[in-house]
């Protein structure tokens, strides 16, 4: 798992984030797959791209989950750069023998309709080009649900502990088939 604050338990009690919940689910379902959470709060696709080769060498994963891109948008980085970095990470993971799952993100409407559409679309584009599995919107039912205000920390950026099971439920249907 290579991600940003959404996967690094930012503002949450350790062990309560969706990745920790994933480990618990794997144990319950007797799926013996080690989980390495190499997520760093504030990370961008550039940071993930630079860190990934060493992680692949060290851990030799069978599945790599890429949850990056949100901070690229928050910083106004070029979408072409985000897309190229995600593609390079997917290619590196595949070259190392891993299957890839990309967790798509969306930006708030104040970014403008074209930017928001292009940003959301780049995740699907990379997944299709690289033969990766895709969760179209990692925060579906959290950021776009009727009670979104109750599912975020006071910063309105980071989901709270109550949102973490939903985040895992968004990932699980796409991740489960990759664990064979």
Keywords summarizing the entry:
single chain; 6 helices; 4-stranded parallel β-sheet; Rossmann fold; alpha/beta; 43% helix; 180 residues
Q: Would you tell me which CATH topology applies?
A: Rossmann fold
Fraction of residues in helices? Answer: 40-55%
Task: Figure out the total of helices.
Answer: 6
CATH class placement: Alpha Beta
Question: How would you characterize the overall build of this protein?
Answer:
The protein is α/β, with parallel strands linked by helices and 180 residues long. It has a single domain (2-179), classed as Rossmann fold. Helices cover 43% and strands 8% of the residues. It contains 6 helices and 4 strands. The chain has a 4-stranded parallel β-sheet, sandwiched between helices. The longest helix has 18 residues, at 113-130. The two termini are 17 Å apart.
């Amino acid at each position: 798992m290579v991600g940003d604050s959404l996967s690094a338990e930012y503002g949450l009690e350790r062990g309560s984030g969706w990745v920790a919940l994933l480990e618990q689910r794997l144990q319950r379902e007797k799926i013996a797959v080690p989980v390495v959470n190499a997520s760093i709060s504030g990370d961008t696709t550039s940071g993930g791209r630079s860190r990934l080769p060493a992680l692949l060498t060290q851990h030799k994963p069978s599945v790599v989950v890429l949850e990056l891109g949100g901070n690229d948008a928050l910083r106004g980085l070029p979408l072409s750069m985000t897309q190229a970095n995600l593609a390079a990470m997917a290619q590196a993971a595949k070259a190392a023998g891993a299957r890839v799952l990309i967790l798509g993100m969306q930006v708030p409407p104040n970014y403008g309709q074209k930017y928001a559409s292009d940003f959301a679309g780049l995740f699907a584009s990379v997944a299709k080009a690289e033969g990766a599995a895709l969760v179209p919107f990692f925060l579906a039912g959290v950021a776009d649900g009727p009670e979104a205000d109750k599912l975020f920390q006071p910063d309105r950026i980071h989901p709270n502990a109550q949102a973490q099971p939903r985040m895992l439920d968004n990932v699980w249907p796409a991740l489960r088939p990759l664990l064979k």
